[in-house]
Fold each of these.
Amino acid sequence: MDKIGILDFGGQYSHLIGRRIRDLGVFARVFPAEVSAEEVARVEGLKGVIFSGGAASVHEGGSPKPDRDILDLGLPILGICYGHQLLSSLFGGEVVSSGTGEYGTTGLELTGEKSSLLDGMEEDTDVWMNHKDSVLEPPAGSRVTGRTEESPVGVFEDDARGLYGVQFHPEVTHTDQGDRILHNFAVRTCGAEPSWDPRDLVPQMVEDARHEIGDRRAIIGLSGGVDSSTAAKIVSEAIGKNLTAVYVDTGLMREGETQSIRDGFQDEDLRLQVVDESDRFLDRLEGVEDPETKRKIIGKTFIDSFTEVAEDLGADVLIQGTIYSDRIESGATTHSDTIKSHHNVGGIPEEMDLEIYEPLRDLYKDEVRRIAREVGVPDKIVHRHVFPGPGLAIRIIGEVTRKRVEIVRHASKVVEDKLREAGLYRNVWMGFAVLLPIKSVGVQGDLRSYKSPVAIRIVESEDAMTANFSRIPYEVLEDISTQITNEIGEVNRVVYDISNKPPATMEWE
Ligand code: XMP
């Protein structure tokens, strides 16, 4: 199987490059920036290497650099953003810190020079930028084939040395023809055969789980979502009766969640245990307002509950359905910044007795969905909107009280029901309500009211790394608003969140 290797210099989108390459049908593997040339050279079928973006500047001491011998392996190399600047600075070009940077979409102008990377691209295509430094001079002897208003060297190419660089991010969907560039590099320049499918991963994942867990007992934290359900299926296939599924009711779940878990999983071979821990979670969250503190408390409480169940069952491995985007945002890769601590990653205490195994750790949500179907996860679960591990607690800005949980749970149910009624539920990544910690004046039944507003967040995304607010018809929004203010006595105003990610995230905390 032909492969492309990616060196991760810490960009938020490094792993997404791998994802896009895999979408082209070529297997991609991500390495930490420090990987040795020897290790890279040992990878069978490796046809080319990509240097990812990253937050550092090549001028900073300590900024990540590759093992120089990787440059001499005779493999084509494509640098993206920081990778583009890195290749320029390593091969005699000039990189400057312009001070202003370039963020968001901009037009790419083709210079008309012969190009293998941009072959087949239309003129005036949009590309997505996210950089502070810029390349002023490309590596000596290379051609500049594309530029933007702020980047005189938007794209450089050197076929003789197999060196290529793009200042923008071809891996994000905001770059119109990014896939073509990655295809030109991986398939045409590197000659990788596009014959891979994510479902091919299943036998390997089952085998890996069997190997890692051996004949030990394991528990899996089942949330009812697609990730944990898929992980459960895979590990169950691997270790059979040694796996017990545990559903912890945190008191922070969506309406009807606990019942639907009971209904959906009781026939499975997973020996489901439902543990009601709502008082424990809500008591520990009393008086806590800071989002990261909430996440850490919830992470710790989950682990406390799982540890107790594991002790009862004599299990020493905890399986989690963590996927790649959870990890990158928790700062779990070496050079990345912590955006937020996902409960099943950054929220886990340093010391715990259970060993954690995460079979889906390198996959994206849509890849998981494809695998889920392959392993027989019911359709209803495959298409269910994502629900974060910390649950409704991170959709309540400020203190989490039982009353406030009830309000946001009810409002979220209205949003989901209305999306289903309008036939839009499956078109969006997720839709939910957020309870705000302020009050505003309203008028209800001829009387002045002074109550909380609820924000509605409905977003579209392919992989959770970037997202756009959904352009929901006004009638549907109005319907949602009316039902919320009619049914929830504590709310007198509903607002719609029109932010994209970035700069916002999907959740509010
Ligand atoms: P953000 O808010 O980071 O969310 O743009 C991206 C996706 O991840 C979900 N999310 C989480 N999932 N544990 C999870 O299992 C978490 O701590 C967590 N935080 C966010 C979020 O719902 C969205 O689908």
Note: The first helix runs from residue 14 to 23.
Amino acid sequence: MSNPELRNQIDPDKLPRHIAIIMDGNGRWAKKRALPRVIGHEYGVKSVRTIAESAAKLGVKFLTLYTFSTENWNRPALEVKAIMALLVKTIRKEVATLQKNNIRLRTIGNIKALPIDAYNELQEAMALTANNTAMDLVLALNYSARWDIVQATQSIAEQVKQGVLNSDQINETVISQALNTGNLPEPELLIRTSGEFRISNFLLWEMAYSEFYFTDMYWPEFDEEAFYKAIIDYQKRERRFGKTSEQIA
Ligand code: IPE
Ligand code: IPE
Ligand code: MG
């Protein structure tokens, strides 16, 4: 089926507002081709551009990409260094793409602990794109869901200590808002590439009712057609939120 035919199968009224993606398989994609892992990350950037543009054109409002996890610091130092250098290069180069597509760049995660040049580049790109309105592209960088839950708990504890919040006022909304994702809606759809069936410390709180879509494709091969297929699959699901099927109909 061609791209336009697939695209026509997407119901614009049932589009997920927020799609989250665990972009996995860059290393294996490269290994399969006897290339260094870093080349896999470079090709992964192409997929980021394709999917971000496609999502914005479709009318998705938030796209969150798991770009570098807290645990990814444990990789060989050379790979970490190469990923950070690629991040700086990509952001610098792709601001024009963001502007062209009216996309606002945001981040979740502890970006203050990134190398200073990456941090500065991000700040600049976020400032430049701050008024864009088509879609928010949220990069999860030095992010892990447990880190976020810990920092949220600390900030809530601090508010209680300061006397601006009573402990019995702590509810789901208070916790949601204290997370880095506080001003994002919860993702309706999570996509993970590369054939792994796990969450790897991503958006644990926010994905309580997300639909999961897994594909064997490695991230560098994940294209617009594959993206459309994931959305079409999502649109066939019945989201019950604990209710019965009859209550939904
Ligand atoms: C995802 O691809 C990118 C990052 C985690 C930074 P991987 O680098 O995890 O690729 P595999 O899983 O080793 O194939
Ligand atoms: C998850 O992928 C993190 C990102 C995509 C940035 P990993 O490759 O780090 O996950 P595991 O180690 O296979 O669970
Ligand atoms: Mg991986």
Note: The longest helix spans residues 77-100.
